[in-house]
Design a protein that fits this description.
heterotrimer, A mainly alpha, B alpha+beta, C mainly alpha, A: mainly alpha, MetI-like fold, 2 strands, B: alpha+beta, OB fold (Dihydrolipoamide Acetyltransferase, E2P), 2 domains, 8 helices, 23% helix
Chain lengths: 283, 365, 285
Amino acid sequence: MIPTIAQPRALRLAYGAYVIAFFVYLALPLAVVAVFAFNDSQFPSLPWEGFTWAWFFGQDRPMIGVFHERAILRAIATSGIVAVAVSALSVAVGLSNAFLFNRYQFPGKGLLYVLMLLPLVIPGIVLGISILVFSSTLANGVWDAAHIDIQMLRPGLVLVILGQFSFIATIATLVISARLQKFDPTLEEAALNLGAGRLTAVRTITLPYLAPALIGAFVVAFLMSFENFNTTLMLVGSDAPLTIAMFDRLKEGSTPLLNAVSLLLMLGSSLLALVMILFQRRS
Amino acid sequence: MTPDLECTGLSRRFGDVKAVDDVTFSVAPGSFFSILGPSGCGKTTIMRMIAGFLEPSGGDIRIKGRSMLGVAPNKRPVNMVFQHLALFPMMDVAGNIGYGLRRAGLARADIARKVDEALDRIGLPGIGARKIDELSGGQKQRVAIARCMVLEPDVLLLDEPLGALDLKLREHMKIELKALQSAFDTTFVYITHDQSEALVMSDQIAVMNRGVFEQVGSARDLYYRPETAFVAGFVGDSNRWRGRVERMEGGALEIRTENGMLLRGAAHGRALGPGDVADIYVRPEAIRLAQNEGELARFENRISGRVTSLLFNGAASRILVAGPGGGEEIEVTLPQSGEFARTGKGDTVHVGWSGDQSNCFPAGK
Amino acid sequence: MQGGTRLGFVLLLTPLLLWLGLLIVIPHIDMFLVSIKERVGVGEYDTSLANYGTFFAETLYLWTFLRTAVMSILATAITLLIAFPVSYYIAKIAKGRLQSALFLLCLVPFWVSELVRTFGWMILLRETGVFSSLLQWAGLADQPVEMLYNDAAIMVGLVYTSMLFMVVPLVTTLESLDNAVIEAGYDLGGNGFSVLREIVIPHAMPGIVSGCIVVFMLSLGNYLTPTMLGGKDSLWFTELIYAQFIVRFNWELGAAFGFMLLILSSVIVWATLRLTGQTLRDTLG
C-alpha cells in the first residue's frame, strides 16, 4: 500500500501495469488526433497515405491548410477576443470577491459564499439558457416600452462573454482566495506602520504577493473560455468561436484540417500552461 | 529468561550510508528501554525495523525468541506509538482503541468491554464517543498508548511521542508514561533525542551515535561513568578541555591544556599514556565553589579566578569563572544554599574538584 | 466598521451582487417564470404548469431524463473506480519527480478542448477508425467494425472527459494522509483491505465527494460527447433542451426542461452531500 510495507512482487507489477495502461488511455485520443494531422489523405483515418504539411500550409483545394483557411482563422480570433475579455472580467471580479470574503465579516456572508459556489454545480447548458431567456426578456421589455432594439442582449459575443464569465468568475475567486488566505496580514500592517496609506499598502504589498494567483487565474480562465462549449452553444450569434466552428464542421464530416487545428490548440494550451507553471515555480 | 526483544548484529544501509551498523542489544521483560541519540543517529531506523516497516540489511530481530525477519508488520507482536501519534482522525476514540481488536476478529461486545477497560486504565473513562480533534495533547497521548495496549503486545515501541507537547505537559507525561508502563507491565522501547526523558523513565538506556551504540547502561552509569567522549558530551552538561598528558600514575593523569592550565583527571581504564592528546570532561555540578581557598584543600584541582558572567536560571543557575591566566572559562553550578546569593560579575571566587570527576578520553578526531 | 472601510466594503460587494444577481439568480428566476407560461394564442400566454405536464406525459422526455441521470451516475462511478488507484499511485507510491510528472501528465489532456478529445475518440472508434483497422489487420475481424454511435462509446467519452476532475481532488486528499496513519493501521494488525476501507477511503471522502459531484455535473450537462459519440437512439437530455430552444423555438418547454435538469442535479448533489456528511463549502471551496 505504501513503499514501507512490503507487497508481493506480482501485485506491485500488476499495479504498475495498470497505471501505465491508464496513461496510454489518456494519451491515445490526443496522439491519434496529432498524428493524422500529417496524413496525406482526405480523411483522418487509416490507411496512412504519407506525410504532408498540407493541412497546415496548403493553399489549393482540396487541401487548404489552417493558415489559409479564413473561417478557421476568424474563429480563432473570435475565441481569443472572448477569452481575453472573460479572463479580464473574471480576474477583476475574482480579486474583488477574494478581498470581500477574506477581509470582511458581514451578515449573509455564508449564504453569499455558497451562492458564489453555485455556478460550479449548475450544468453549463442551463446557465446558457437562463441567461438567454433573461436577456431576451430584457430586450423584449425595452422594445415594447421604447421601441429600441438593444443588439447587445441578443445572442452574440456579449452574451457569450457574460455566459462564460458567469461560472469562470467562481474559479477565479477560488484561485485568488486560496492565495490571499495564506497572506500574512501583518505585512500590510507593517506597511501602514511605515507610512503607507491603506490603498498603497494593498497596491505595493498585497497585490505583488497575489501576482502568481492572478496570473494563474487569468490563464485558467483563458483556457476554460477558449475550450468552453456548452454555455457558448446556447448564446452564440453569427460570429462563432473556434469550438463552435469546429463542431459545425465536424458534423458535416471531418478532414485532417480539424486535426491540424486541434494540434495547434494542444500546442498553444500546453505552452500557456507551461509558462504558467514556470512562472509559479519561480515565485 | 528469554529477553522480550533481542537484536543481534542488526544493520541497515541506505545506499552507501550505514544508518544502523551492527547493533546488538537485548531488552529484559517488563523493562523500560530507551535509545537516546541526536537526530539522524539511526534510532528511528532501528525502531522501524523492529516494527516491520524496514527490512534489515543484516542481523536478526527476535521477539520472545521468535525471529521477526520476513514477518509482515501486521503480524508482529509489537505495536508502535508514532511520533505524531497517527491517531485515526476519521474515527472516534473508541474506534481508534478498538481498531486492532476488530482486526483480530473479536466479538463486538468483547471489543466494547475491552475499550472501556482501556479507557478506565488510562484515566479517561467515558470519552469513547469523542472525536480525535476534541482531545487535548495529553489525552491524545494516552489514547495512542491505549490503542496499542489493548492488543497486549510483547513490546511497545514509542517513537519520540512527547516531542509535540509543550514543556509543562512533557514533564507531566514523563511521570505518567512511567506509571502506565508499570501498570500495564509491558516492555517499552522508547526512542528520543531528549536526555531528560530517557534519564527519568528508563531502566536501561542505549546512547546511539552514527549508527552504533556508544554505551548501554542505567541512567546513573551514563551520567557518572560515561564510557566514551560522545556519551560524556551528550548526556548532561560538561566543561570540556583538550590537552596533552604529562604524567600518569595508576589511573590518575596530569594534563596540560592548550592554554597552559594544569588539570588532574582520571582515565577510568581508558587507554591513555604520557604524550597522548586527551579530552577532559567535567560536569559543572561536580565543581565545588568556595569563598576561601581553605575549603578546597581536599580537591586535586583548585583554581582561583574572577566571575565573568552570571547565568541566572533559578535552580540551574551557573557562573562562568576565568582562571588567572585568562584562558578557558569554567562553568560552575551556583549552589542555592544562600552563601553565593550576592556573588556577581568581577568577584573573586575559588573552585575545586576531585581528579576522579575529570573524565579523560583519548582525543577524538 | 469605519467610514473608509465601509466605502471599501460597498465597492467590493457591488461586483459580487451584480454578477450573482444579474447572471445567476435573476436569470434562473426568469427561466422558471418562462417555464410556467403556456402559449394560448399568438403572443398570448397563461400561467400554468402545462409544460411540466408535457414533460411527464411524453414518454420520450421522461425516459431520456431518467436515462441521462442513470448514465451520468454510472459514468461517475466508473470514473471513480478508474481514477482511485491511479490517484493513490500518484499520491502515495510515486516519489519526487515521477510524482509531479505523472500528475502533470494527468492534467495535459484537459488543457485542450473537449471537442478535440471527442474528435480523438471518433478517430479511434469509428468504422474506418484506428481500432477497426487494427482488428482487421490482426485478423480478429473480417470486415470494418463500428464501435461509435452507441452507449458504450458515450460512456468512454464521458469518463475520459471527466477524469481530471476526479484525479485532482483525489490526489490532493490522499496526499494529505500521513503515511504514519497507514503504518499505524498495519501495526495494529490491519491488512491492505481493512486499511483501505477503514482508513484510506474515509480520509479521502471529501475528495471522493467533490470529484463525484463535479464529474456527475459535467456528465449530466454534457452535450458534445453524447451528440458526437452517441447514436440515433442514445438521446441525452441536453439534446432535448437544445432542440426545444434552437430547433423548435419552443422556449417555454425548453425552460421547463432546463429547470428539471437543474432540480435533478441539485437533488442528487444535495443527497450525496447529506449521505456523506459533507458540505458544499468544504467540497468545492
